[in-house]
Design goal:
single chain; alpha/beta; Rossmann fold; GMP Synthetase, Chain A, domain 3; eight-stranded mixed beta sheet; 16 helices; about 30% helix
Length: about 525
Amino acid sequence: MITKVPQTLADMLDNNAWKNPDETAFVWGDKRVTHAEHHTRASKLASGLLSLGMRRQDRVGILSQNSLEFQEVYSACEISGYICATVNWRLAVPEMVYIVNDGSPKVFIFDAEYAEAVIELRPQLTSVQHFVCIGGKGVPGLEFAIDYEDLIASGDSSGVPFRPLPDDIAFLIYTSGTTGRPKGVMLGQAGQVAAAEILGSDQRNSPADRLLIMMPLFHIGAKIIQLAQHWRAGSVVVQRGFDPQAIVECIEKERITVTHMAPTMVQMLLDSPSVEAADLSSLRMIVYAAAPMPLPVLKKGLKMLGPVFQHQFGQTEGIGTTLLAHQHRPDGTDRDREILTSVGQVSPRVNVRIVDDHGVDLPTGEVGEILLTSPGVMKGYWNNSAATIETLRDGWVHTGDIGKLDDEGYLYLVDRKKDMIISGGENIYSREVEEAVVAHDAVSEVAVIGVPDEKYGEAVMAVVVRKPGGDVSAEELIAHCRTLIASYKKPRHVTFVDDIVKLPSGKIDKVRLRKLYG
């Protein structure tokens, strides 16, 4: 075997299994899997999928919460050149149907927990030829699905007779656009290798690190932080989801050094009764993203855990900037506190521009749209060339975020994407919620905004005009929305009005609405 710099994710997996065969790749509960064992399982799964008719760049859909099997599906695709197309398990069935049909996977792998949803999905899916169930052997009603372990057992440990190319798509991860319509972000093999190296450099990952993942693996955040750790062949501890008590116990037991959380999770962790008595001294870094850290939470975290916090800003479409741990100094100088309101400086091999509406670069300190580029930016949007052309131009991702750079290169967010709400680390787009609300027969008009929320950062509020004679309560509207969109997107507050404030152009004045109700 020849030593080589990884060009693909398959090269990373090969290198880890070859150079660190007996080191732990994954921890799942009391189970430990070495890099060599993981490579073998992923290769056999890739081979089993080949027997079902899969070819390079065919899609494999997966619907599952975090699990060891989820990581194996990712790796089987990485090692073979299949495309892993993830599905957010928090979505409503109609939303899942759209995403699966758009990505058109040939094989759909799902956890038995979602059997009921898959049975409902199944008649509406147009591309899926084979269903594979994790943990559903012998469960009535799942006779149509192949057992996951049986599929692996049928595979060859030598894998498949083809390899991914650096320019191949590795992942298809769906994210809502500013209009609320889901878009499949195409992330390439070579791009994800570069992103892993860039992020690993910012996080100072080493083979001795033990990374804890509890953020959902259907998002790029959890996936890319795992790749950053495996860029250096370290260990990844996987939790099915977030539970403060379980996270505290895991950090202590497994001597976790690095983890990744949304700010609302950090707050819940710090509020956990067990955190002060636990030995969390192994923890050197908590990477937070998705939203800024409230200053009181940050100060409490620094007091309890030390200088462990690091903020990362980016999108599924591409990584961006980092506010490093040593730059978190809330009790420092005025300049230190000013820097703390930024999202940091560009990560290695990343460039940022601020441009006006005509794409002209703006001077330092002036506000405009944030553009990002790096070797890890997306290849485009799946089946959506118009959105690709609009967002990805000359290799630059037009983020839709508004910000400015100071004279030391710190990036400051001035506004977010139009109408986007960040609640508990999840992006929620107003138009998508508005479409669900207005689908009710009693609703004439609606505007959806984000309002401050102590627990989630922001909560969804619907400002609603009823139709004449329309008799619907707030509770009924919220229940109605749950049938059309994911529960976390539904309004938490509903305000009924006679008229919604508008601009002279006739468009709803959301700036005014936020002032009125925020």
